[in-house]
Amino acid sequence: MNSTEPVIAIKNINHYYGRGVLRKQILFDINLEIYAGEIVIMTGPSGSGKTTLLSLIGGLRSVQEGSMRLLGQELLGASQSKLVHMRRNIGYIFQAHNLLGFLTARQNVQMAVELNQGISQSAAIKKSEIMLGSVGLSERMNYYPDNLSGGQKQRIAIARALVNHPPLVLADEPTAALDKQSGRDVVEIMQRLAKDQGTAILLVTHDNRILDIADRIVEMEDGLLTRDAQNVPISNKLGREVSEPHN
Fold first, then answer.
1. What is the spatial distance between Cα 101 and Cα 147, in angstroms, rounded to a whole number?
2. What range does the domain containing 189 cover?
3. What is this structure's pTM?
4. Does residue 3 fall inside a structural domain?
5. Among residues 173, 139, 167, 127, which one has the least CA distance to residue 154?
6. 149 lies in a domain?
C-alpha cells in the first residue's frame, strides 16, 4: 500500500439484513476514508448503523454492495480465509474488555503476540511487558483481571490491541463502562500510542467528553453518514479548550 493511500477506503457501501419481504436496508451509500495516524470518532444514536459499519470494516461481516479496501485490498467478495487474514491487521477494543480471566495481564497481551507472530516465547513476553509499561501497568503485569479496576482492564485491552502495531484499530464504546477520569485516561493513552505508531483509529462513542481527541468527527443517522468534519478546538467563555466539528 502506498503511504499516501488511506488505511481504509469505503465507497458506496450499502448493507441489508434479512431476506425477501423481510429484507431491510441498514446502511445507505456510505463513503469514508481514514488515513494512517488519524483518529476518527463516529457518533450517532443507537440503531443508526455504527456497529454494522464497524463490523464490516473489521471483516466480521461480508461486504454486500460497494467497495471497501483495507490496506489496498478489496473486501467485497473476499473469501472467509482472506477476511481472517485481513483481520490480523486490525486491533479491536470493545466496551467489554473481553479479557480471559484465567490469564494475567501480561498473558492476555502475550497471547495476541503469539497468535499473530512466529516469535519465541521470551520475545513475546518482553514485547508484552514493554506494551503494558506504555499503558502504565508495569506494576500490574502479573495481576488477574478480577483484581484490577475497570480502567486498568481497558488499558490491558488497549495494550493487546496495539501490541502488534496494527495499521488500524477499531474501538466500540471503549469508555462506556468507565467513570470520567478512567475514560479520559484510556482515550489519551489510545491517542498517544496511535500517534506514536502511526495507527489509524475509528472510535464509536456516545461519550461527548472525549470528542476533543479526534482529528475528525463523523456522524451516522438512520444508516446515512450525515457529517464528516474536521475537529477544531475553540475556546469557551472560561478559557478552556473545547471542540466542535468544522466542515
1. 10
2. 36-62+80-230
3. 0.84
4. no
5. 173
6. yes
